[in-house]
Amino acid sequence: MAVGTRLRKNLDIPLIVVAYLLAITGVIMIYSVTYRDPSAAFHKKQIIGICLGTVGLTAAAMLDYHLYLRIARQIYGVNLALLVLVLKFAHTVNGAGRWIRVAGFPFQPSESAKLFVILTLGAFLLNRRDTIREAKTLLLSLGYVLIPALLILKQPDLGTALVLLAIWLGMVFMAGASLRHLAGLVLICMLIFVGLWQSGKVIKGYQKDRIKTLISPEADTSKSGWHVKQARMAIGSGGMWGRGLLHGAAAQGHWVPEKESDFIFTDIGEELGFAGALILTTLYIVLLARGYLLIVAADEDLYGKLIASGIVTMLAFHVIVNIGMNVGVLPVAGIPLPLISAGGSNILMTLVCIGLLQSVSIHRHQLMF
Question: What does the pLDDT read at residue 97?
């Protein structure tokens, strides 16, 4: 079948439409909450990210994803090299060194690490599909992901490290791992977390405070509890229809931190109200549903199924954690809202992931030898 015919037949149009509706909404909201600070130009940077991401999406969709099987080891090596490079030469912002400059533009390798882990872990699991129910294979797959996750944690970036673990869990589950083994590993991880909490060597004080905020916001000493309270108040003040674009009192009054990125859902609740938040949530449900349908459609192609599973897990984790922390039911984790939050690297890599989902839709019937 010719490439053009296959593309017209298998391109997932609803997935593309929903992704760009979210991206456009993001630009509008970013402008709405930052227009009084024109020097920041967050919305312009977001548009640049969308343009670059569109190029990446198109390339990823056109390229047969089976080709990544041939270079999986090289991709894994590049991923680790970039993460080590960050630790040596990163540009520090708010105490975290996560950005390096590429061709004059800031780039966050932890964002590309998510995509690289999905591609390489998928190849790893495909090569071990006959032994995935063995504890040894499951532990090896976890170690495969823990190496980049620990490098990201060193930056420090706990949120993205957790995203990688969520991706691992979603992919090994879809690969057919034993539920008994997974439950045992989750229990072990919980015990390790308690040990790290007590030691104070890995989990920082401000990260502990964020978790304590769930229990008692007023007792939080790092101000994140105060921020969560302000976010809740802002969302509540929006009512059903919101205060209107450019009229978010909390955003314009600087009561909500990171209003253009981590807490942009708060701005949506305040300016567009419950109705706007509901429409946004519905768009995400449609996006994830389209991804799930691709997982089902790719059932006979394990690599395509694993790639789609990793991307859908990543997007779902981002959406759930970001909205959860905005409404105060999950700890503040610094995880952006996909396609909405300001961040050139994030919007770029998210659109590339959408393109990779399209590649699974278009090329899943092809076999590479």
Answer: 60
Residues sharing a CB contact under 8 Å with residue 24, sequence separation 6 or more, in sequence order: none
Which residues contact residue 28 at a Cβ distance below 8 angstroms, ignoring those fewer than 6 apart? 245
Each residue of 15-60: pLDDT tens digit? 999 999 999 999 999 999 888 777 678 899 999 999 999 999 999 9
How far apart are the C-alpha atoms of 107 and 99, rounded to whole Å? 5
100: DSSP letter: E
Task: List CB contacts of 308: < 8 A, sequence separation 6 or more.
Answer: 291, 294, 295, 298, 357, 360
Nearest CA-CA partner of 168 in 274, 306, 3: 306
Q: Break the chain into its structural domains and give their ranges.
A: 3-363
Residues 347-361: tens digit of each pLDDT: 999 999 999 999 999
Query: 14: cis peptide before it, omega within 30°?
Result: no
